[in-house]
Design goal:
By secondary structure, the chain is mainly alpha-helical. About 80% of the residues lie in helices and about 0% in strands. The radius of gyration is 17 Å and the shape is globular.
């Protein structure tokens, strides 16, 4: 495997394409918690980045081990993303409506909710394992790391943008964040069916 300019460019473009869902969810998280501190932002962006690194590698390993079983799973990916993001988004939406007039502090995104978001936004990255199936493991690892680094940078930008608008939207942030997550789930679902 030769590590050419095109290899690195392709990896960055994969990262940008795969990170768009995580970017949108990061914006929603920023909207939901406009007072979020830097360590929390790094933790959220890092979680999305790690999932974007691991998922293509899992796809690559599946191709090299249990390819026939993985292909059967492929058709369920849009459904899984829709259910997971719909659940998290619906929960945010309901909490935003219930606390419409309250000036209470915004509830932080929990660990389990963050893990679900990570899975939901990176599950489509499993399919990258198919496209890099002819790479050796080192090349697949390097591509996955580039995808993860790209995702991290894009998610930090999404969190900053979300926080900026979250401060201005105050009470409506949770409602807007929930709607965004539901729409992302629907978008992933529709893209998966097409």
């Amino acid at each position: 495997m030769q590590y050419t300019f095109m290899f690195f460019l392709n990896s960055i473009l994969f990262g940008i394409g795969l990170a768009m869902d995580a970017f949108s969810v990061s914006m929603a998280n920023g909207l939901n918690d406009p007072g979020m501190k830097k360590p929390r932002m790094i933790g959220i962006a890092g979680t999305f980045a790690i999932y974007q690194i691991v998922m293509p590698l899992i796809g690559w390993i599946c191709i090299h081990t249990i390819a026939s079983k993985f292909e059967a799973f492929q058709k369920y990916i849009p459904w899984i993303a829709l259910i997971l993001l719909g659940y998290i988004g619906g929960k945010m939406l309901i909490e935003g409506i219930k606390n419409k007039g309250d000036e209470e502090e915004v509830k932080n995104l929990g660990f389990i909710a963050l893990m679900i978001q990570g899975i939901a936004t990176s599950i489509d990255a499993l399919s990258v394992g198919f496209t890099i199936a002819d790479y050796d493991f080192l090349a697949a690892l390097i591509e996955s790391l580039i995808i993860g680094i790209t995702t991290f940078a894009i998610c930090i930008a999404g969190l900053i943008i979300g926080k900026k608008f979250g401060t201005k939207l105050a009470n409506k942030a949770s409602i807007l964040g929930g709607v965004i997550l539901i729409l992302i789930g629907i978008e992933i679902f529709v893209k998966g069916l097409i």
